[in-house]
Amino acid sequence: MVTETHQGGPDLDAIVIGAGFSGLGMLRRLRDEMGLSVRVFEKGDGVGGTWYWNRYPGARCDSESYLYCFSFSDELLQDWSWSGKYPEQPEILSYLEHVAERFDLERNIQFSTAVTAAHFDEAHGFWRVKTDRGDTVTCRYLISGIGCISTGNVPDIPGLDTFQGAWHHTGAWPHDGVAFEGKRVAVIGTGSSGVQAIPVIAQTAEHVTVYQRTAQFTIPARHGTVDRRLIEEEVKPNYASILEAARHSAGGVPAEFSARSAFDVSDEERHEIYERLWANGGHKFLFSAFGDITTDLDANATASDFIRDKIRETVDDPETARKLLPTDHPLASKRPLIDTDYFDTYNRDNVELITLKEDPIEAITETGVRTESGERDFDIIVFATGFDAMTGSFFKMDIRGRNGAALTDAWSAGPRTYLGVQSAGFPNFFMITGPGSPSVLSNMPVSIEQHIEWIGDLIETMCTQDRYVVEPSLVAQDDWVAHVNDVASQTLYMHGNSWYLGANIPGKPRVFMPYVGGVGVYREHCEGVAAADYPGFTFDDGAAITQTAAG
Ligand code: NA7
Questions:
Q1: What is the pLDDT at residue 128?
Q2: Quick one: 111 and 256 in the same domain?
Q3: To test the ligand 1 pocket, which listed residue (68, 173, 213) has its Cβ within 8 A of the most ligand atoms?
Q4: Which of these three, 327, 356, 383, is where a domain ends?
Q5: Would 529 be classed as within a structural domain?
Q6: Do 145 and 166 have their domain in common?
Q7: pLDDT at position 3, please?
Q8: CA–CA distance from 196 to each of 17, 36, 170, 223, 227 (Å)?
Q9: Looking at the domain assignment, is residue 2 inside a domain?
């Protein structure tokens, strides 16, 4: 299909921002399946997105490898073989590089180029996109594939600029690595990245001091090499049905979710179930035993207590174990973590734990970090302090919709979208896994592909039916935002100071950003909207735009 070129029309049919899973998949869909002219702008000098930037030691995905992939090509599914149960960063990056090469995607990607601004030109009905390389390009459709956790959060600690050693954020890790041998290292932050990096750094560093703000629940991953027999005999012959089950699941993995309550069984039986799941490892601990761990505080307490006992059992020094016990939030109200040897690492002689609630950081000095209790010297500081999630990367660009209205203003009290795909007042601007969609609460490739397909179908409908501009109505958007909040309020997610709520960024509005209703439920809702010819969206046939452009 080739789009009509309106007089005064844009340079390109579509611009996609970002060349991670989202951007690569969207480019392929628009270019190869629909014949549209597309350019991808990517800040990095290669593909990969999250997996291009997050090269810290131990970086690995929490989804099992055979589920962390594109599904659009059966040949690709059959040909690719992962080596680990959970895919490690270098291998995911290789996978995405392979996809880019195999489908000849790089010819439409402009690397080392960040989009700085995108303004909707109402007279012409297209977007004018500017980059830090001086490009100004116009397009009919603007699609964000910028990822949900891509703008690093380096805390504003006084004195960082005076530090004479090296410092790195996990999300912008040097490409040639960091040598920790013989070095005194501070790690600030104990989320997914810190919990993955600390055990690996401790193996080579002379000494590691961990600065922990919130003690975390984390479950052993039981990572290992991939089970080849399982993959070759059970997964690959059945890939289509496995991935279809993932698409209709709660979290984008075909896991069995238990319907029973933690109180349907005796204390002994519950303990045995937790022991078995702990031994097997992974997120199944949270979902496959009991259905109410994530919804009922008393049920949650049974699992939280079990993990606290495991921490006490694992960590030799009782004072360190005490500091590691999460006591201020229910299990899974913050991003659930899985780890390899995290708590065991605190039994090493070269690892020390500082809890910031008892001993806050006062300043970073020329030689190290000063807390209330005193100063420690370091050669390297690692910031595993997370991201300005879900909205931060949008706000780094000057995005303006109708009447020159800025997205930063439209979202000043928290992000507002319809279906997490579009925001009212920003016509023909689409977000892959935007706020208000399951996104970070799911196995990302499944959610990304669903948006690629859904946005692709909508654009295809517009191209074939002479609909020039689409945007959601305010009413539909308000109803969706209310629904997203309503569903979240029925869960324990509101009980933790998580980045899902923006709680990690000082001054950020406290709004639950992802949609917690489940990947399958969400997909069915989106499919219903498409089948009913997109209620909640308004279309413009572009007649007025063409006249204006011609005039
Ligand atoms: P996270 O999950 O946001 O973790 C960041 C960690 O850094 C967490 O322990 C924070 O404590 C801590 N933090 C944040 N700001 C500060 C300051 N100012 N001082 C001290 N400690 C701080 O980011 P990750 O990179 O680990 O993981 C991001 C996602 O990547 C992850 O969830 C997966 O989806 C993949 P807090 O808990 O906020 O008190």
A1: 98
A2: no
A3: 213
A4: 383
A5: yes
A6: no
A7: 39
A8: 29, 41, 10, 12, 22
A9: no
Q: Is this model's pTM higher than 0.90 or not?
A: yes
Other residues' Cβ atoms within 10 Å of the Cβ of residue 101: 11
Phi-psi category of residue 48: left, alpha or beta, with phi > 0 → left and psi -120 to 50 → alpha: left
Which ligand 1 atom sits closest to the C-alpha of 440? 34
From ligand 1's centre to the CA of 130, what distance in Å?
A: 32
Q: Which residues of the chain are modeled with pLDDT < 70? A: 1-8, 546-551
Mutate to test the pocket of ligand 1, among 216, 383, 385, 505 (most ligand atoms within 8 A of CB): 385
Name the nearest CA neighbour of 180 among 383, 386, 385, 382.
Answer: 382
Q: Where does a domain end: 383, 411, 435?
A: 383
Å from CA of 376 to ligand 1 middle: 22
- Ligand 1 lining (C-beta closer than 6 Å): 149, 155, 170, 188-194, 213-214, 335, 356, 384-387, 440, 499, 504
Looking from the CA of residue 335, the nearest atom of ligand 1 is 32
pLDDT of residue 256: 77
Q: Which residue's CA is minimally distant from atom 27 of ligand 1?
A: 192
334 CA from centroid of ligand 1 (Å): 10
- Domain tally, the chain: 2
- Among 68, 331, 504, 513, which residue has the most ligand 1 atoms within 8 Å of its CB, making it the best to mutate? 504
Q: What is the CATH number of the domain that holds 526?
A: 3.50.50.60
- Say if CB 460 and CB 32 are below 8 A apart: no
Same domain, 376 and 396: no
* Residue 546: predicted pLDDT: 57
What's the CA dihedral at 517, 519, 42, 89 to 10 degrees? Answer: 110
Are 140 and 105 part of one and the same domain? yes
* 86 lies in the same domain as 196: no
Question: pLDDT at position 2, please?
Answer: 34
Same domain assignment for residues 432 and 518: yes
Residue 172 is assigned to a structural domain of this protein: yes
Residue 5 counted as domain residue = no
My answer on whether 507 and 433 are in the same domain is yes
Phi, psi of 439 (to 5 degrees): 30, -105
| Span 183-201, pLDDT tens digits | 999 999 999 999 999 999 9
Q: Which residues contact 208 (CB under 8 A, 6 or more apart)?
A: 185, 186, 187, 198, 201, 202, 350, 351, 352
Q: Residues 88, 116: one domain?
A: yes
Domain residues for the domain of 449 are 12-151+389-550
- Give 502 Cα–ligand 1 centroid separation in angstroms: 11
State residue 7's pLDDT score: 54
Q: What pLDDT is recorded for position 380?
A: 98
Instruction: Work out the burial of residue 247: count CB atoms within 10 Å of its CB; fewer than 13 is exposed, 13-18 middle, 19 or more buried.
Output: middle
Going by the DSSP 8-state scheme, the letter that residue 105 receives in this structure is -
What is the distance, to the nearest Å, from the Cα of residue 157 to the centroid of all Cα atoms in its chain?
25
